[in-house]
Amino acid sequence: MRKLGRFLALLLIAAALAATLGTLLPRPLWPAAAAGEGTRHILVLKNPIHTDIAIPVDDAVRRRFRFLVEAGIPADSPEVRYIVFGWGGRAFYLETPTWSQLKAIPVMKALTIDASVMHVDVAGAIAEPHPDIAGFDIGEDRFADLLDFIAASFQQGTGGPIVIENAAYSRFDRFYEANGHFNALVGCNTWTAAALRTAGLRTGWWNPLPASLGLSMRLYN
């Protein structure tokens, strides 16, 4: 038991050290050259364990993601101001709509390895400032790169992105099969960080939690 206790203590210390270094070490190491005026305002939305990216919509964005409307997401509604994208573990995402429904198996899969899904929702106007919302201005070229990154995260079938039937939290969101596998090291927040780097922003080297991602974004952008 003592050996197990020491091992667990060392594991916790190593995890804390990795998270700290992953936050304080910027990625990329050096700022990118300025790429013009930031004309697109994107948002990062967070809760205690998860982050999403909210993309401002216009006609071009609606056309790019027109498959969402075909699945029942009202992305073409005039009230919609943002499409919200998140990547995560299939079991945890689908089986844990609320904390009261937390189960052991989805948690175990999230800590080991699981298939991934994309969750897509829509939102109207989002008020800033807010402690759970961070906004960033990026240029048109970087905005296009970000849309490419998000689109590439959807697994493609013969008819396009594969919607998961009977999987949603409300009438306005849907889940899709995604590329990649989810685990404790490569999770929803590392996906968000990679997307933000594609958009020309700097993150920490490894950001497994919203708190570390948010701190690194404040430090380096």
Give the strand line-up of the largest sheet: 6-2-3-4-5-9
Number of domains: 1
Which runs of at least 5 residues are low in confidence (pLDDT < 50)?
Answer: none
Distance between the termini: 46 Å
Number of strands: 10
Q: What Rg do the Cα atoms give? A: 18 Å
| Total helical elements | 8
Q: Give average pLDDT, whole number.
A: 89
Question: What is the beta-strand fraction?
Answer: 15-25%
Question: Percent of residues in helical segments?
Answer: 25-40%
Estimated structural class: alpha+beta
- Major sheet details: 6 strands, antiparallel
The dominant shape is globular
In short:
The protein has 221 residues and is an alpha+beta fold.
Question: What is the topological layout?
Answer:
Layout: H1 2-24, E1 26-27, E2 40-46, E3 51-56, H2 59-64, H3 67-70, E4 82-89, H4 90-95, H5 104-111, E5 114-123, E6 133-138, H6 140-152, E7 156-157, E8 160-161, E9 174-182, H7 188-198, E10 203-204, H8 210-220
Helix pairs in contact: 1-8
